[in-house]
Write a structure and sequence with these properties.
Layout (H helix, E strand, L loop, with lengths): L1 E14 L3 E5 L2 E7 L6 H13 L3 E2 L5 E3 L7 E6 L21 H19 L2 E4 L7 E15 L5
Parallel strand pairs: 3-6, 6-7
Antiparallel strand pairs: 1-2, 1-3, 1-8, 4-5
Helix pairs in contact: 1-2
Length: 150
Amino acid sequence: MRVVVQRVLSAEVSSAAHGSANIGNGMMILLGIEHDDSVGDIDWLVGKLIRLRIFDDEAGIMNLSVMDIAGSMLVVSQFTLHASTRKGNRPSYIKAANPDKAIPLYEAFVERLKSESGLKVECGWFGANMQISLINDGPVTIIIDTKNRE
């Protein structure tokens, strides 16, 4: 699994077919799922995200997690995070999981994020055409990959 995490003051995802979902202060999480991802990746990634210290403390130092600030999270599926641009100019998405595998993992990820954090977690709609708007705070943008746990 690969995520792009952004510290946001607010974020909203909308879709003509599904409506909209929004959060205030917290994290915008774009989630890409590969064909060989598993529940073990969810366990590790959720733990990392809810403890990730990217929010400022009273001294202005990034020392607080989303849990510490009682923030919220917005999760959007993003298969293009697994794009390969090695050959030519048209990205290949061969590493991205097909919907039969990706949808259950995406739903399990969202549910685990909710249960482990106890915070407000909103999400987009798997496979839908969505528009996202956000106010990135900092800006702070971090990429985390369960295949490269650094």
